[in-house]
Amino acid sequence: MGQIASLESWKTGLVTRSGAETEQAAEAFADLLPPDTVLSLSGELGSGKTTFVRGLARGLGYAGDVTSPSFSLLNVLEGRRRLLHVDAYRLKTPEAFDGLMVWDLAKTPWNLVVEWPERVEGRLPAESWRMEAAMLPDGAHRYRLVQPA
Q1: Where are the domains of the chain?
Q2: 137 Cβ contact partners less than 8 Å away, ≥ 6 residues apart
Q3: Rg for the chain (alpha carbons), in Å?
Q4: What is the DSSP letter of 17?
């Protein structure tokens, strides 16, 4: 799985070979993600986005179950930081993101993770961090941090 404790390894691209490895890597990534930061998490269906969020939540001190907010659109997870988890897949317009009132819930310290961020174009801060998730031909998953530069 490689070195998971540095931003450089995430920018190069980190490969995981199981859900447990993905969760472990994301748990370590939580220490690298600054408080009060947005992380957009893009990737096709099955690329491990929610599994990544499950590990991230654990790394931020949340001990409960983490499920995809596919139907609720937003889950609020309380740990050492408040983790706001949005699945924007079903949002019809970028403006629909505003109706979730995410910014009203973002009480310091917080992190917001948005799956399918391309659906809410223009609604996330320009300084948001961006992670790309991909499923590889051998069934492994690759996570690559493309922003911050």
Answers
A1: 7-147
A2: none
A3: 14
A4: S
Pull the structure tokens for residue 8.
Answer: 């450089």
Residue 62, token pair as written in the block? 């949340």
Query: 40-97 pLDDT, tens per residue?
Result: 999 998 899 999 999 999 999 999 999 888 878 999 999 999 999 999 999 999 999 9
Best CA proximity match to 95, nearest among 120, 70, 113, 72: 120
Minimal CA–CA distance to 44: which of 133, 130, 146, 129?
Answer: 133
**CATH for the stretch 7-147:** 3.40.50.300
H or E stretch including 7? helix 7-12
**112-68-111 Cα angle (round to 5):** 10
pLDDT in tens, 115-136: 999 999 899 999 999 999 999 9
What's the whole-model pTM score? 0.91
Q: How many CB atoms lie within 10 A of CB 90?
A: 12
